[in-house]
Amino acid sequence: MPDVVVVGGGVVGVACALAFARRGADVELREARDALGLAASGTNSGIVHTGFDSRPGELETELILRAAQLRPALLATLGVPFDERGAVLTPRTGAERETVAALAANARGNGVEVAVGDDGALLVPGEGVTDPVAFTLALAAAAEAHGAVIRLGTPVTAPVDADVIVNAAGLGAGRVARLFGDDSFDVHPRKGEFFVFDVAPPPRILLPVPTSRTKGVLVFGTLDGRTVAGPTAVDLDAEDWTVRPAARAEILAKAVAMHPALDGVEPVFAYAGLRPAGRDGANYVVRASEADPHLLHAAAIRSTGLTAAPAIAERVVALAGLEGAPEAELRAGAAPPPSATPWWRRTAERLAA
């Protein structure tokens, strides 16, 4: 029997497996699909956030800011690509200028470097882009290098016998919780649709001025030189990985206004990502279960989970009573062979097959 069973092979699950393995635990990760980093992690935008717009006092904010301290050494050791190109928000109305000014004040309160230009635009130099699949696979390889066992095609359909069970099951986290008699939260899919263009990307990530419901449509360049526009935000009751016909109109007009080079250009690919959204606003459920003392949740982690994963893992091992620095110095595992398929196609094509 392993000391720790991690349920879920997305970026949060593999980060947790690595964190426990570095602290000497006998770790087994179980992933239902036949590969890691499919589902939510494989369709993440790849943007690594600074937390400039995160709400002070929330757990999500705390973990995003903590991850910024952990990430540089992690990326360097694991050889994960990261382009800290910065992001910019450009207001177009007086009301948007007020929103941007408030975001600047929020950023400074969170300790995030920003600058406001004479035109009212907000520059966030620390925002960057990575390959979410490469990051997930590198974390998994490092976990294996530290002794963790990863089992693919192994869905968890009954309670698990282990000292610690980590529920990092993404879209299935509510179902896994209920296996252990815990119905304290649930998740549902929130669809975000994206369009990919063979157009030179903007030098920075172009962020819209957000609304109360969504951060809106953004435009950014991938590491392989394409331009991506999206996402939408569509709440679902069941998994649906298709791109709606209406998504094109919802995204393109906003994207062209931000990056005119997209005007009249046909997308070369479209994909949908599903984020695990907590019902009734219960996001970032990172805590011990009250129903089973062995069960720890790392659940309802929305798209910022790519950013916060190292800090989420640190929090989870602390919940298991393993506070403090890891016993073992971080070692990189064997890198997977480079894929001819970019990350933004990998999951979409696998799920459509």
What is the strand and helix layout of this fold?
Blueprint: E1 4-7, H1 11-22, E2 27-30, E3 47-48, H2 59-78, E4 82-83, E5 87-89, H3 94-109, E6 115-116, E7 122-124, E8 128-130, H4 132-145, E9 149-151, E10 164-167, H5 173-179, E11 187-197, E12 205-207, E13 218-221, E14 227-230, E15 234-235, H6 247-258, E16 269-278, E17 285-288, E18 295-299, H7 305-319, H8 343-352
Parallel strand pairs: 1-2, 1-10, 2-9, 5-12, 10-18
Antiparallel strand pairs: 3-8, 4-8, 5-7, 6-7, 11-14, 11-15, 11-16, 13-14, 17-18
Structural description of this entry:
- This protein is an alpha/beta fold.
- It has a single domain, classed as FAD/NAD(P)-binding domain (3-Layer(bba) Sandwich).
- Helices cover 30% and strands 21% of the residues.
- The longest helix is centred in the N-terminal third of the chain and has 20 residues.
- The two termini are 35 Å apart.
- The model has no long low-confidence stretch (mean pLDDT 94).
CATH superfamily: FAD/NAD(P)-binding domain
Largest sheet: 6 strands, mixed
| Helix and strand element order | EHEEHEEHEEEHEEHEEEEEHEEEHH
Q: What is the global morphology?
A: globular
Number of domains: 1
Kindly report how far apart the N and C termini lie.
Answer: 35 Å
What's the count of strands? 18
Predict the CATH topology.
FAD/NAD(P)-binding domain
Residue fraction in strands = 15-25%
CA radius of gyration is 20 Å
Structural class: alpha/beta
Helical region count? 8
Helix content: 25-40%
Strand adjacency order, main sheet: 9-2-1-10-18-17
Mean pLDDT: 94
CATH class identity: Alpha Beta
- CATH-scheme architecture: 3-Layer(bba) Sandwich
Q: What are the segments in which pLDDT stays under 50 over at least 5 consecutive residues? A: none
